[in-house]
Structures are given as C-alpha cells and as structure tokens.
Design a protein that fits this description.
two-stranded antiparallel ribbon; alpha/beta; 10 strands; 10 helices
Amino acid sequence: MHALLQYIKFLFKSSNQHGVHSPFIYNLVTRCFYDKGHYDAYKHIVNYKKSLLKNKTYLSVTDLGVGSHVMKRNKRQIASMAKHAGTTNKRAKLAYRLVKYFESKTILELGTSLGITTHAMSLANENNEITTIEGCPNLSKFSKGNLERKRIKHVNIKIGDFMDHIPSLSTNKYDLVFFDGNHQKEATLKYFETLLPTVHNNTVFIFDDIHWSRGMTETWENIKKHPKVTVTIDTFFWGVVFFRREQGKEHFTIRI
C-alpha cells in the first residue's frame, strides 16, 4: 500500500526531459535514460536472465536484511527468485547504460544476489573493476560460478554482512556505488555515511527500491538533505545521487 501511494504521488510530480533545465541532467536523461539504441550487450543481459528463469535448482538463502516480500521460505528456487525478486531486464539495461555513460571504472555493489545487475554493469566497460558484496554464502557461490561461466573476470565477490567489509573499503574512491541490499532505514543510512569518504566529484550513488517501504522513503528524504549531496533524481524504483560541487542543490523526479 505504501509503494502504491508513493507511485501515485510520483506520477503527479514526475516529468521527462522537457521539465529539466539543468544541462547536466538534461543530457543524462536524453542520452542515457531515454537512449533507444540497440546495444550488442543487451542480448547478453536478456540471456543471463533467461538462464536464471530456467534454473530449477534450490538454494538455502540467508537474509541478513528485510528479505523478500514474496518469498518467505529459506529454501528458494533460482527461477522463482529471478522472477519475483531479480532485477528486471529494463533496469539491468539502464545499469549498463549508466556505467557506459559515466565511463565508471571503479564500482561497488552492495547486494550481489543472482548477479543480474553485476553482469550488466560488467559488460559496459571491460576495464572496470567491480567489488560486490553478498550476505548469503550460497547465493554468492552461485553468482560467482555463473559470472565465471560468462567469462566475467573483473568482478570480486565478497561474502558477509555489508558492514564487515565497508569500513575496509571506505579508503577507496569509487565512480559508482550501487546500494541494493538490506532495505532498512538505519542500515542504509549507515552504509551511506560510511561510504561518503569514497566519493569524488563525479561519483554516482544509486539506491534501489527507495519507495519500497515507509522507512526507505524516509531514508531517501534524509539522503537528499545531506550537505554533501548536490543533485538527486527520483525514478521511483531507483534514487540517483550526485556530489558535483559545481551544481546547485536540486532534486528531480523523472519518469523512465
């Protein structure tokens, strides 16, 4: 119900490129968000998801965060997870375009899951280095093997609670950080605060499911108010955050 009400509000507030006066955001929307090009990588993205949807294997899944709204059992089928909780092809393609558009070379992902987004981002730049953290050992092992079979070699998968790894990573600098795990207010804000030292002027933070719950919507509003944050984009399913010092503080709501 919360997500439905938020979506109705989003429809009233959102606009397309015609409601954008910032050249930086206008170019991002028209050249990346609304890019209608047919990239060769798209077929690999679609095939990756198809292979998951055909996989009848069961895994014992450990949820360290809120977990799934749909699947409450610990033993879950790969195909079911891909169908109900896996990243959609549309979002995977957008992740690919974002990494390609910003030429992101150093990427951190919180929440590997089935590796759908990881795989898509890896295709955008063969020279990038992706560190991805997954709390569930069985999911991590499965995704690692799956990515290796796809000959993706520049992905480093770490296993465990995010906060077991984030402090040691906070001395790095990242071009893009994708927050796709836990989905609890206090935890997400803690990840955000701990990873702030990793940003540079062109870093992009992406938060998944910002209207998934009341707590996540409150989290998004808190992030928007942070003094280091200059520009944000609410796409309803993702919140995109920029730290560009040359930009005045401004918030956009964009339909994709």
